[in-house]
Amino acid sequence: RGLESSPGACVQRVDRGGIVRIRNLEQLEPRIRFQRHPGTSHLEHHLVLLTHLRAILVALGEAEQVEDDTHALFLERFDELLAQLNQDLEGSLYLGQDLLSQVFHRYPQIAHLMPRDLLWFFGGDCLHFMPDEEIALFQELDERRFAALENGMEFDWNQEKQLLSMPVDSSKH
Q1: Cα angle for residues 65, 124, 28 (degrees, 5° grid)
Q2: C-alpha triplet 17, 21, 26: angle, nearest 5°
Q3: Tens of pLDDT along 49-61?
Q4: What is the pTM of this model?
Q5: H or E stretch covering 106
Q6: End-to-end Cα, the chain, rounded Å
Q7: How many angstroms from the chain centroid is the CA of residue 138?
Q8: For 29-169, where are the alpha helices, taking DSSP H only?
Q9: What's the DSSP call for residue 67?
Q10: Could you give the CA distance from residue 155 to residue 41 in angstroms, rounded to a whole number?
Q11: For residue 115, which phi and psi values (nearest 5 degrees)?
Q12: Contacts of 128 (CB under 8 A, 6+ apart)
């Protein structure tokens, strides 16, 4: 048994009978709404990743792969984080660090599904789950993002991340 997922898609439970669709992410948590503010595309990117991670956690509970009775309380705290991030980014960082660290400890079976961008976004203790090479990649991404913002240019986080992840020789055609 295992879980397969991708942001913007459906969370799925995989068992002997094949892939069973659990729910569509848009229907996952209708009460969580994100306000759109100018210049928050970076925040919105991470909110989408958090919503995706939450969907994985919900699917884990529905697949009865969680033995702990506190799973529902953990999801409530996760919802608090989603609601607070859009209103108080700085004040929410410690809660985010705490919750993401707990995901690794409470749910090691989904550690490989953790969006790595979230570890960098929240920083602090989350950086202990990243190898040095990955930290260097995200540092370069942030430097490029800040340079683009300073120059009034658009910055596509995912595109730049793909470019930085490419082997050096593959950029030459």
Answers
A1: 40
A2: 170
A3: 999 999 999 999 8
A4: 0.72
A5: helix 89-106
A6: 41
A7: 14
A8: 41-62, 71-85, 89-106, 116-122, 132-150, 157-165
A9: -
A10: 9
A11: -65, 120
A12: none
